[in-house]
């Protein structure tokens, strides 16, 4: 293949027969969809939108992009793409660390698994070859033990990407975890792996940076992007923001504007937010600041909690998880937060969905919809319910179905803070209007990472907008969705979008791959990817009127001083957004598909 940056190798693995076929990258698809998320979505689309996500016919793809594992800053991402058993949409879920870079260095752009193995299996990947190995001894083990055993067997320097017991028990929101405690958490991609008896990937590879097509242009493009990162208020190493406080630097800011969903979003601010904030954690239990491949930011926050029942030493306390097990559940016990996150990491559970299902169960208990007593902020009960969910024991068997299905089973779907079957992250649409539109129109169910308008509404990137204003949020969100489809498809961390603009991406892509590209042209690729996902979802049954929000955000005004009286004006924003997208009430018309060269 002519294009640089790619390994130009994909393995298609049939787990039913054990057959493994190797092929090059389809150059036309690579030009149209880049790689990682974009190419994965194309492969899942080609596999058909109507299939049962947990049937052997579904495929699960592990991908990297043309910039993954290169010198490009923050380029250590791996992407998992499949049809979600939680939402029924196409889903993509990304993690950092070194596993993405190692997959590229091991000679692959992607691994595609189909079928179902007769017995638990793991895939060993090295030097352009994939070998299927027996994982019977690993089945039943948590992610932490699985990683330890596989690193002992294959060497400390391998990456391991694995599911835990939650996936094995087909909890609908099971995650893939790697050796750096990074998760591909959302959408139940781990559940799909487990349904195929696929326990883990082991990737062995030494650093082998891909050569750019245009070395001089690449050096300059890389330098420009790095300068932007080093000068950015959110990303600059050791200057505050993500580097010092991690993603949990947001807790106090989001709380202050009355946009922190509290007690299952019955309220929009949490009186004790400081106790669970990145600022408090940084001052009290922080022990290190780990990073990912080629990243000067080091936003990961390694902590060790006090000795006692919640003692734990773990690598990553993210804002979303701290909010979910904290404010959403009315819990201000600092040490319980890393403990609960670590427990979920070991079981291989999405912390956002798990914490939402707990908050919803607390409301169900308060409303006496269920017999089980689950009080707000009862951390011991929360721990018990995580165990029960992962093992599908007792009420845990219902919780394992996810927030939306469990609320329905409890008799009141209105207490599920979900969109298209997936639970919300840590931003209340009554105090951050753009996020309401982002949740409703996300192609993988409620999500902050498809279009992060918070960057504008709080941080002022690319320009400051009023979090309580709805006008103009359609255009803002479209830009973010198209732009962030690019970072996911190039194989770089989404946080780079705080400092880098589409021009930075275009210059780095162009120099690495050897295809001339400017900011507008690369944004059109992002738009194409977003529309392909939407087209898949339309064909999978998400037709007109599917872009909605929980009624609570539309009808129950915020009571916090900063967002007092506000609800989310979703319908107004949707009209603006659909017009810009060229969609008909959420459906991509044929002329739009043709204009974007999707069909
Ligand atoms: S900003 Fe954080 S998540 Fe992104 S690459 Fe750097 S350390 Fe990893």
Keywords:
single chain, 599 residues, alpha+beta, Aldehyde Ferredoxin Oxidoreductase,  A, domain 1, Aldehyde Ferredoxin Oxidoreductase Protein, subunit A, domain 2, Aldehyde Ferredoxin Oxidoreductase Protein, subunit A, domain 3, 3 domains, 24 helices, 39% helix, binds iron/sulfur cluster
Description:
This protein has 599 residues and is of the alpha+beta class. It has three domains: 10-204, Aldehyde Ferredoxin Oxidoreductase,  A, domain 1 (4-Layer Sandwich); 248-423, Aldehyde Ferredoxin Oxidoreductase Protein, subunit A, domain 2 (Orthogonal Bundle); 433-498 and 518-595, Aldehyde Ferredoxin Oxidoreductase Protein, subunit A, domain 3. The chain has 24 helices and 17 strands. A six-stranded mixed beta sheet has the order 2-1-6-3-4-5. Strand 4 (78-83) and strand 5 (90-95) form a beta hairpin. The protein is globular, with a radius of gyration of 22 Å. The model has no long low-confidence stretch (mean pLDDT 97). The protein binds iron/sulfur cluster. Iron/sulfur cluster is lined by residues 74, 76, 96, 242, 291-292, 295, 297-300, 493, 495.
The pLDDT mean sits at 97
**DSSP strand count:** 17
Distinct ligand kinds: iron/sulfur cluster
The low-confidence parts are: none
How much strand content do the residues show? 5-15%
The CATH first-level class of the largest domain comes to Alpha Beta
Helix-strand category: alpha+beta
- The span between the termini is 23 Å
Q: Helical amount among residues, as a percent range? A: 25-40%
Q: What CATH architecture of the largest domain do you see?
A: 4-Layer Sandwich
Structurally, the number of domains stands at 3
Q: Largest sheet, if any?
A: 6 strands, mixed
Q: Mind telling me the C-alpha Rg? A: 22 Å
Q: Outline, from the CA principal axes?
A: globular
Side by side, the strands of the main sheet go 2-1-6-3-4-5
Counted by DSSP, the helix tally is 24
- Specify the CATH homologous superfamily of the largest domain: Aldehyde ferredoxin oxidoreductase, N-terminal domain
CATH fold naming of the largest domain: Aldehyde Ferredoxin Oxidoreductase,  A, domain 1
């Amino acid at each position: 293949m002519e294009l640089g940056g790619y390994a130009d190798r994909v393995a298609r693995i049939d787990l039913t027969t054990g057959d493994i076929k190797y092929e090059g990258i389809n150059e036309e698809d690579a030009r149209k969809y880049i790689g990682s998320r974009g190419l994965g979505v194309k492969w899942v689309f080609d596999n058909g939108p109507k299939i049962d996500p947990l049937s052997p016919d579904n495929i699960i793809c592990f991908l990297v992009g043309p910039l993954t594992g290169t010198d490009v800053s923050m380029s250590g991402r791996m992407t998992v793409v499949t049809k979600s058993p939680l939402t029924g949409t196409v889903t993509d879920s990304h993690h950092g660390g070194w596993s993405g870079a190692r997959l590229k260095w091991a000679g692959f752009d992607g691994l595609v698994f189909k079928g179902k193995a007769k017995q638990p299996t793991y895939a060993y990947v090295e030097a352009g070859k994939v070998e299927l190995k027996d994982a019977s001894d690993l089945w039943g083990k948590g992610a932490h033990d699985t990683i330890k055993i596989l690193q002992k067997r294959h060497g400390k320097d391998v990456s391991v990407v694995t599911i835990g017991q939650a996936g094995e028990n087909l909890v609908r929101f099971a995650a893939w975890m790697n050796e750096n405690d990074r998760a591909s958490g959302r959408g139940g991609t781990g559940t799909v792996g487990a349904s195929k008896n696929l326990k883990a990937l082991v990737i062995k590879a030494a650093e082998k940076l891909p050569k750019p097509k245009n070395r001089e242009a690449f050096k300059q493009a890389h330098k420009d992007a790095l300068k932007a990162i080093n000068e950015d208020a959110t990303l600059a190493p050791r200057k505050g923001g993500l580097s010092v406080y991690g993603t949990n630097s947001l807790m106090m800011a989001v709380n202050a504007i009355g946009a922190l969903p509290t007690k299952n979003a019955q309220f929009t601010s949490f009186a004790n937010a400081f106790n669970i904030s990145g600022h408090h954690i940084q001052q009290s239990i922080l022990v290190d600041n780990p990073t990912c491949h080629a990243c000067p930011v080091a936003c990961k926050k390694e902590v060790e909690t006090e000795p006692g029942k919640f003692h734990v030493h773990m690598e990553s306390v993210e804002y979303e998880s701290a909010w979910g097990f904290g404010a959403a559940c009315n819990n201000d016990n600092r040490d319980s937060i890393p403990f609960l996150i670590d427990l979920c990491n070991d079981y291989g559970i999405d912390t956002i969905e798990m914490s939402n299902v707990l908050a919803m169960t607390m409301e169900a208990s308060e409303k006496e919809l269920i017999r089980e007593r689950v009080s707000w902020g009862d951390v011991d009960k929360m721990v018990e319910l995580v165990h029960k969910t992962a093992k599908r024991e007792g009420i845990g068997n219902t919780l394992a179905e996810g927030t939306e299905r469990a609320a329905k089973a409890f008799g009141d779907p209105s207490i599920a803070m979900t969109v298209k079957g997936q639970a919300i992250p840590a931003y209340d649409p009554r105090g951050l209007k753009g996020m309401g539109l982002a949740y409703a129109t996300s192609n993988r169910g409620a999500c902050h990472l498809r279009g992060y308008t918070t960057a504008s509404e709080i941080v002022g990137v690319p320009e400051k907008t009023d979090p309580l204003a709805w006008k103009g949020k359609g255009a803002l969100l479209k830009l973010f969705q198209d732009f962030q489809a690019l970072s996911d498809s190039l194989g770089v961390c989404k946080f780079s979008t705080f400092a880098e603009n589409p021009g930075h991406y275009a210059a780095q892509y162009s120099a690495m791959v050897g295809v001339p590209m400017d900011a507008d042209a690369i944004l059109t690729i992002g738009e194409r990817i977003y529309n392909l996902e939407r087209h898949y979802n339309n064909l999978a049954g998400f037709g007109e009127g599917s872009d909605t929000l929980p009624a609570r955000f539309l009808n129950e005004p915020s009571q916090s001083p900063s967002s007092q009286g506000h609800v989310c004006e979703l319908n107004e924003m949707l009209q603006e957004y659909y017009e810009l997208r060229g969609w008909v009430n959420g459906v991509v018309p044929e002329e739009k598909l043709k204009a974007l060269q999707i069909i």
